[in-house]
Amino acid sequence: MTTTESGLFTIMSVSLNGQEDIVASRHRARHLGSQLGFTNQDQVRIATAVSELARNALQYGRGARVEFSVALNSVPQYLWVKVSDKGSGMDTGNSVAVTGRLMDLFEVDSQPGEGTTIRIAKALQTDRITSSDLHQIVSEFAPQRAPGAFDEVRRQNQELLETLSALRSRENDVAEQQLRLDQLDAEIEQTNRGVVALYGELDEKAEALRQAAELKSRFLYHVSHEFRTPLNSILALSRLLLDRADGDLTPEQERQVGYIRRSAQDLTEMVNDLLDLSRVESGKTEVHPGLVKPGPVIRHAARNHASACDK
Length: 311
Prior knowledge:
The chain is of the alpha+beta class. The chain is built from 7 helices and 6 strands.
C-alpha cells in the first residue's frame, strides 16, 4: 500500500502468470467496486474491463501485472486500474474498444520493445473517501481467497443472466413506451382531423356571415333609396301647404301639416343615417373620429321626444 504525492493510493496488485490470475483479478475488481460503493452494473463493467485487459496482457506480454489504486485528491475521485506488461507491445484493438465503452477514462502507452501500460478509471459516486477508509478496505481483502475458475465462471453466468433479465425488462419498458407513443400519435392525429374540420366549419360560417352582411348592406342601401323619393315628395308638399300655395290653412290644419313635415324630416334623417352606415360597412366611406359636444345632441333628442309625445 503506497500513496504518491498526487494522492494516488495504491490498494493492491495482482501478478498475471496464468488463467487463475485473470480470475483473481476479476474477482478483486468486482469486490473492490462493491467496497467503494459502485452499483452492481458498474461493478460488472469494471470486472469485465479488468479481465479483458488482463487476458490480453497475459496473451501478448510477459511479466503482466494488474494494479488497483484510488485518486484521493481528484474531483471526482476515481478508481484507477493499471494493466502493464514487459512484452514487445500487445494487441490493444479489441481491448481498447471494449474498455473504452465500459469505463470513464482510458489511457494507453504501448512502445515496441518496451511493453504496454493501459490505465482505466471509473468515477466514484459516493461521498469522498479518505486514506483511512482505504486502509480498512485493504484489511478486509487480506483473509479472502480468490475463487476458483469454476466459481468465477458460474458468477459470470449469473451476471450475464441478470444483465439479460435487465435487458428484457428494458425491452418491455421500451415496448410499453412505444405503445403509449402510438396511442398518443393516434389521439393527436384524431385531434388534428377535428381541428381541420372545425376550421372548415368556421370558414364556412365566416363566409356565410360575410354574405349576410353584404346582403344586409345592399338591402339597407336600396331600401333607403326607395324611401327617399316619397319622403322628398312629402317634404315638398308640406312646404307648399305651409307656404299657403293653395290657400290659407286653419290653425289646426297648419299644426297637422307641421307634424307631417317634422315626421318626414325625422324619417329622412334616419334614411340618411342608414345610407351612411351602408357606405361605411362597404368601405366606401372613411370614418374620422372626433370630439362631439353633447349639448346639441341632447337638445335634438329632447325635441324629437317632445314631438313624439305631442303626436
